[in-house]
Amino acid sequence: MRAFFREVAVILVVAVVIVSGLHFVAQDYVINEYCMEPTLQEGQRILVNKLVYKFHEPERGDVIVFYPPPPYDSAAVPFIKRVIAIPGDTVEIKGGAVYVNDVALDEPYIKEPPSYTFSLYEIPEDHYFVLGDNRNVANDSHRWGVLPLRDEEGHQNIIGKAWLSTWPLDKWGLVINYPLKEQLVNSAGE
User: What gap in Å lies between CA 68 and CA 144, rounded to an integer?
Assistant: First the structure.
């Protein structure tokens, strides 16, 4: 009987360690708005890779989950958007196209071209320009500015990279990210 309880205790300890480790590496996130359509739909569940940005910075085309910058309450539901420009890049939106470093992007993931303009802007160090794939309804950098890597107290704003869609089952699979190289090659017609 003593051996049985010892085995149960070991199994429980191992289970707690595994669950704790998973929480450190991944986080469940529910899409709660229409800003990422058609890539992600409201109510869809995804796993967010919280470990990836410990090894490298976010890249153009990554779909990220982050705490919203002021004036939004950082305790509010995190936002999800696509990284369009990184520190040192220039971004401009005009004529229904997004330009990064003076090159129009080929964006097969957007719902429709943006119907607004955004003047040429250079992304400062430790900031990112993020847009929703549903450009004309998304609350994103074209409205509130660039996303700082850290908040005023030095805490990381970016939770992680959207990684795996888990629900509904017909949407199961990796979340598609579009690296800038792929968008530039496509926009050049190659």
Answer: 10
**Cα separation, 159 vs 49, whole angstroms:** 8
Q: Which residue has the tokens 């003047």?
A: 119
Higher-scoring residue by pLDDT: 160, 186: 160
**E-assigned strand segments in 7-89:** 26-30, 45-49, 63-66, 79-85
Gap between the Cα atoms of 88 and 125, Å rounded: 7
* pLDDT tens for each residue of 12-47: 655 555 555 555 566 777 788 888 888 888 889 888
C-alpha distances (whole Å) from 39 to each of 67, 155, 189 are: 20, 29, 23
- 158-167 and 45-49 as β-strands: parallel, antiparallel, unpaired? antiparallel
